[in-house]
Amino acid sequence: MNVWLVILLVVVAALFALYLSMTAGRLDHLHKRIDTSELALDAQLVRRSAVSMELATSGLLDPASSMLLADAAHAARTSGEADAEARASAESALTGALSAVLTPEDVTEVSSVPEGAEMLAELSASCRRVQLSRRFLNDAVRACRQLRGQRMCRTFRLAGHTAWPESWEMDDEMPSGLASR
Q1: Stretch 128-140: mean pLDDT, rounded?
Q2: Rounded to whole angstroms, how far apart are CA atoms 174 and 149?
Q3: Lower CB count within 10 Å: N or C terminus of the chain?
Q4: Residue ranges of domains in the chain
Q5: pLDDT over 70 for what percent of the chain?
C-alpha cells in the first residue's frame, strides 16, 4: 500500500512539474511574441513617418500643410530614443497631422499626379500596417498579462524578473481622405 501511495505522489508531482514547465514555456513564448511585435510596430512607425516626410517634401501639398506634416513626421521619427509615452504622443500627433492635411479634397488633388497617387497608396498601406502591428502587440500583451495574473504564475514566479508588459496606446486612425481609397 505504501508503494502505491509513493508512486501516486511521484506521478502527481511529475504532472504538476510538467504543468509548471509548460506554463513557463508559454509565458516565454508570449514574451518573445511581444518583443517581435514591438520591433514590427517600430519598423512600421518609422516607415509611416518616412513616407509622411517624403510626401511633405514632394511639393504636392500646399506650403502650410507641408510644414505641418514635415514637423510632425520629424518629431515622430526623432522620438524613437524617448520613452514610450513620449513616442506614442509624437506618433499620435503625426496621425493628427495626417488627418488634418489629407482631407478627401486634398487627396483627390494629390492623387491626380502619378507620383502623388503612388505616395498616397504607400502611405495608406503604411497606416494600415501600423494599425495591425499595434493590434497584434496589444493582443500579445493582453494574453501575457492574463497568464501572468494567474495564481500559479505569481506563486511560482514563472515570469522571473521580466518587466510587466505594457500595451501601446496611440491614435492610429486612418486619415479620412485615405480611408476611402
Answers
A1: 97
A2: 34
A3: N
A4: 29-179
A5: 98
| Cβ count near 159 (within 10 Å) | 19
* Residue 111: count of CB within 10 angstroms of its CB: 17
Burial class (CB within 10 angstroms; exposed 0-12, middle 13-18, buried 19+) of 149? exposed
pLDDT at 181: 60
Flag whether pLDDT at 61 surpasses 90.
Answer: yes
Angle between the N-to-C axes of helices 114-148 and 2-56, in degrees from 0 to 180, rounded to the nearest 10: 160
Of 140, 137, 157, the residue nearest 148 (C-alpha): 157
For the record, the C-alpha cell of 17 comes out as 512539474
Determine the Cα–Cα distance for residues 63 and 50; give it in Å rounded to an integer. Answer: 18
* Residue 147: partners with Cβ closer than 8 Å, 6 or more residues away: 23, 26, 27, 30, 153
Residue corresponding to grid cell 508588459? 165
Q: What's the half-sphere exposure (Cβ side, CA atoms, 13 Å) at 34?
A: 21
pLDDT of residue 11: 97
Give 102-153 as a DSSP string. --HHHHHHHHTSHHHHHHHHHHHHHHHHHHHHHHHHHHHHHHHHHHHTSHHH
